[in-house]
Design a protein that fits this description.
10 strands, D-Maltodextrin-Binding Protein, domain 2, WH_DNA-bd_sf, Transcriptional regulator, LysR family, LysR_subst-bd, 11 helices, about 20% strand, transcription regulation, transcription
């Protein structure tokens, strides 16, 4: 007998037939036709020069040679399966570093991130909530240096989209809207029904220092509201703190609709008036043109985040 090993497919076919005692069930397991299984067994027997299966009208039995070989054959396939599992376990996942503003990360990105992980389990994410909102129109060189110094693959930034040296995709535009706890709409003393009612409620201010931040002064002007002091109320140095105050019912916050989407859908916040204020700045996803590493992972993430933004826009217009 030749010491050359027979074809693996033929051995798999024989093992399945021997286990099921059926050509039909073996074919179903291996997703091939019954004729293909029969051909593989015949080919294996010709290769070995010995019969392995006795065919009867409605059943099969193994010959002495087939019975003798089966335990070692099963052991061999189990060993192969263990080897494949070992190889897969040694696979090194790609890593991807994404920098975003903390508010955008917690309120928009993180609630959606599980879908990216499900679609790309081979990509390990490192999300950094970085408070420095880079404006490349002011510091062209600093942006490129930031990518290199911190090994950043992708940034999501709120700005005008002018980022020289980078590949830029606009994620979405944003509107500034008033936000409050739904209970303020039915407040026993001063229900919040129209913009003028704001004079009876505390204004919540997000004083995070970035260009393009919405302000109560501009919104009140747009709403033609007089008699409301736009400076009064509670001031916070971070939007997440101001959002928590709004969720707690401490007043009315002016912020970006995208950051409040999940809280609105969950009924924790509402938009008391339909008047929104368009902001000139928008969210953009960027990566350096000179990048040479993690390009597949970066492209996959950017494609995913753009699709999420498009779905959000479709829901908003529906």
């Amino acid at each position: 007998m030749s010491h050359q090993l027979p074809p693996l497919n033929a051995l798999r076919a024989f093992e399945a037939v021997a286990r099921h005692q059926s050509f039909t069930k073996a074919a179903e397991e291996l997703f091939v036709t019954r004729a293909a299984i029969s051909h593989q067994i015949k080919h294996l027997e010709e290769f070995l020069g010995i019969e392995l299966v006795e065919r009867h009208n409605r059943s099969i039995t193994l010959t002495r040679a087939g019975e003798a070989a089966l335990p070692k054959l099963r052991e061999g396939f189990n060993t192969l399966a263990d080897a494949v599992h070992l190889m897969r376990s040694q696979k090194t996942n790609e890593s991807l570093s994404v920098w975003v503003a903390p508010s955008f990360a917690s309120k928009w990105l993180v609630p959606r991130l599980h879908t990216f992980s499900q679609q790309h389990p081979d990509i390990d994410m490192r999300i950094s909530g970085e408070a420095k909102l880079v404006d490349a129109t002011e510091q062209h060189g600093a942006l490129d240096e930031l990518f290199r110094a911190h090994e950043i693959d992708v940034m999501i930034r709120f700005g005008q989209g002018n980022y020289p040296g980078c590949l830029v995709e606009k994620l979405f535009s944003v509107e500034a809207v008033p936000l409050c706890k739904p209970s303020l709409l039915t407040d026993s003393e001063h229900p919040l029904r129209e913009p003028a009612d704001l004079k009876f409620h505390t204004l919540l201010h997000d004083d995070t220092p970035y260009i393009g931040r919405p302000s109560w002064e501009r919104w009140l002007q747009l709403a033609n509201v007089e008699g409301v002091d736009f400076k009064r109320g509670l001031h916070f140095n971070h939007v997440s703190l101001a959002m928590e105050a709004a969720l707690d019912g401490q007043g009315v916050l002016l912020s970006m609709d995208a950051l409040a989407q999940h809280d609105i859908e969950a009924g924790r916040l509402c938009i008391p008036f339909p008047l929104s204020m368009h902001l000139e700045h928008a969210y953009h996803v960027i990566r350096p043109k000179s990048a040479t590493t993690n390009q597949r992972a970066a492209s996959a993430f950017i494609a995913w985040v753009l699709a999420e933004a498009e779905e959000q826009e479709e829901q908003r217009l529906a």
